[in-house]
Amino acid sequence: MKTAANAPSTVDPPAPASFAEKGRDKWGALQGVHWGDKIFHYTTGTFAILVLALPLLMMVMLIAASRLSITNFGPAFLVDTQWDPVREEFGALPFIFGTVVSSLLALLLAVPVSLGLAIFLSELCPKKLRKPLGFFSELLAAIPSVVYGFWGIFVMLPWLRDSVQPALARWFGFLPIFQGQALGFGMLAAAMILAIMIVPTIASISRDVLRAVPDTEREAAIALGATPWETIRHAVLPMAKSGILGAVILGLNRALGETMAVTMVIGNRPKISASLFDPSHSMASVIANELIEAEKDIHVSSLSQIALLLFGVALVMNLGARWLVSGVKRRAAKITASVKLETSK
User: Fold this and answer.
1) Rounded percentage of the chain residues whose pLDDT exceeds 90
2) Is residue 52 part of a domain?
3) What is the domain count for the chain?
4) Which of 27, 84, 196, 248 would bridge with 89, disulfide CB 3.0–4.6 Å?
5) Which are the contacts of 335, defined by CB distance < 8 A and separation ≥ 6?
6) In the prediction, which pLDDT does 307 show?
């Protein structure tokens, strides 16, 4: 005979709490907290909101400041090559050209060095030397850009003018990019100083990405008889390639926005030239050179539009790079968790 205690329960399970009920529960829990914790909670929340709102506020202000230039020139502003504040003729193409070419050349010079340094520090370097070498490589990122520019003027430019550019013109002068007068100042100088500045950024992030690759990948390759180079090539680099790409994009992002060092060595001439020896200009350098002296509203608005373009490109590239780097770490965490699960069975 079934008793009431043994009878099956007819009580329905509680319904899942709605979003409003969860909010009220959280608010009620917060009301029971000490007032100091409440102040800390809302203060840190306010800081987080400000951090999110600041880029949006900057974009709104730049759009407002660029309205006159956008209205007067329209899309032609991006393809016009004339920059004459006296005649109020403004075109951003020379600055876009100088920024893109100098940054891409810097990547071409910096990526092999950065990747080699990251591989050595994460895979091949003895443990006693790993921390000191990592510290000194990251120390380059702490040097102010104006110091790089000062070094570039008094050390790098004379070396380029007297040794490098004449040798390039003598051996490769049949190419348009190595023709022209050896001045020292120019696109080549800007690319070289940018390459030196972005090496620590790319190397540091690439090293962290390589370290995030699970050791099981290396152990599996070694168990199959792979050499250290084959282990790095076939097991480590394929898994870290998207994160390394993110590091390269972050390095490119810094190169695009660099101002003082580039301004001091690029020559500051708003002309498009095929030769790397000729002076050029960049978006960041023209803003630094002309914003203080700009008197006419259309001049200020044109500089603001260049700043808006630079801000948008940097923001998009930064977000994309962070997404790529985080993707590598997520995949590495999944592989590590699956390996631990298999070994625990």
Assistant:
1) 33
2) no
3) 1
4) 84
5) 214, 216, 217
6) 92
Q: Which residue's entry shows tokens 């013109």? A: 169
Determine the Cα–Cα distance for residues 325 and 239; give it in Å rounded to an integer: 11
In a domain, 60, yes or no: no
Query: Residue 320 and residue 327: Cα distance in Å, rounded?
Result: 11
259: closest CA among 177, 182, 188, 197? 197
281 close to 266: Cβ distance less than 8 angstroms = yes
- What CATH code is carried by the domain that includes residue 105? 1.10.3720.10
Return the SS3 of 143. Answer: coil
Q: Measured between alpha carbons, how far is 99 from 249 in angstroms, rounded to an integer?
A: 15
**Over the Cα atoms of the chain, what is R_g?**
28
Residue 116: other Cβ atoms inside 10 A: 13
In a domain, 47, yes or no: no
Domain hosting 185: range is 69-335
Cα separation of the two ends of the chain: 44
Query: Amino acid identity of 122?
Result: S
* pTM of the predicted model as reported, rounded to 2 decimal places: 0.78
Report the alpha-carbon distance of residue 115 to residue 45 in Å, rounded: 38
Q: What is the pLDDT of residues 39-68, one digit of tens each?
A: 888 888 898 899 889 888 988 999 999 999
pLDDT of 329? 64
Other beta carbons within 10 Å of 272: 15
The answer to whether 291 and 300 have CB atoms below 8 angstroms apart is yes
Angle ∠(127,235,319) on CA atoms, nearest 5: 85
User: Is residue 342 in a domain?
Assistant: no
The Cα 78–Cα 91 span in angstroms is 6
pLDDT tens column, 122-176 = 888 888 888 888 888 888 888 889 999 999 999 999 999 999 999 999 999 899 9
Residue (of 99, 121, 137, 24) closest to 310 by Cα position: 99
How far is it, in rounded angstroms, from Cα 192 to Cα 148?
11
Q: How many residues appear in the chain? A: 345
